[in-house]
């Protein structure tokens, strides 16, 4: 028996909107730790890891570890039917081939339930090693989204370089080239507007903008984004989910031939 | 333009 009641249902709606274009089908894993997911995109270039900790739910009952295969597009369709202020409860019985999403309006005058068929998904689980990153950049998530969108109108790939000067996003394409430098800036009115750069070693890595643009679909989840980089390792783009967990996107770099 | 690496080259299957 599984019953997870999330008062801020909009968070789950935003989570689905942030990953449904990158991943088609995925297993949601439910344990005493929380509600989580790990899935790769179909070309195995990027990986998404989601965690919603059990403490973040108003009610969290998970009698035994459960893995539920879902088509994310279908799940997003159902969650779109929940109001932004609705409380969402996820329910499943042991051995059932369906999951139920229950939506309650804040005043309790409208209660809906949507039953979705589960699917068997044979997915590989990858071990993500704990890593010390050479450079960690925290910046406003909207700024990162803007940069990725702007650069993708010029080129297909972005080179992200971190030096003492700041973080530079560069691209080249048929029509020309572009460089955007963001300097560390902590003298802002709101802490979430700051750009903070922690650098141990200078880093320069190249990534496909097609994927970074997928990641920025998570912008509504958090006002800041953290980009962790090490030479010759996948980048981690993390959006924290208020007091509950995170969505982390890992992207393998492109290397020169 | 560079060669796109796969994520599975970095993270072992568990």
CA-based shape of chain A: globular
Shape of chain B: rod-shaped
Quick one: biggest sheet of chain B?
Answer: none
Topology as H/E string of chain B?
Answer: E
Could you report the average pLDDT of chain B, rounded to the nearest whole number? 91
**Helices and strands of chain A: which structural class?**
mainly beta
Q: Would you tell me the overall average pLDDT of chain A?
A: 96
Number of distinct helices of chain B? 0
Largest interface: A-B, 26 and 14 residues
Strand content of chain B: 5-15%
Q: What is the count of DSSP helices of chain A, taking H or I runs of 4+ residues?
A: 4
Biggest sheet record of chain A: 9 strands, antiparallel
Taking pLDDT < 50 over at least 5 consecutive residues as the criterion, the unreliable ranges of chain A are none
Could you walk me through the main structural features you see in this protein, from its secondary elements to its overall organization?
The complex is a heterodimer of chains A (257) and B (14). With 257 residues, chain A is mainly beta. Chain A is built from four helices and 19 strands. In chain A, strands 6-2-3-4-18-17-16-10-14 form a nine-stranded antiparallel beta sheet. Chain A has a five-stranded antiparallel beta sheet with strand order 5-1-7-8-9, with helices on one face. A four-stranded antiparallel beta sheet of chain A has the order 13-12-11-15. In chain A, α1 (10-19) runs antiparallel to α2 (72-79) and α3 runs antiparallel to α4 (209-215). The longest helix of chain A has 12 residues, at 141-152. Chain B is rod-shaped, with a radius of gyration of 10 Å. Chain B is an all-beta fold and 14 residues long. Chain B contains no helices and one strand. Helix content of chain B is 0%, strand content 14%. Chain B has one strand at residues 3-4. The interface between A and B is medium-sized, with 26 and 14 residues. β19 of chain A pairs antiparallel with β1 (3-4) of chain B.
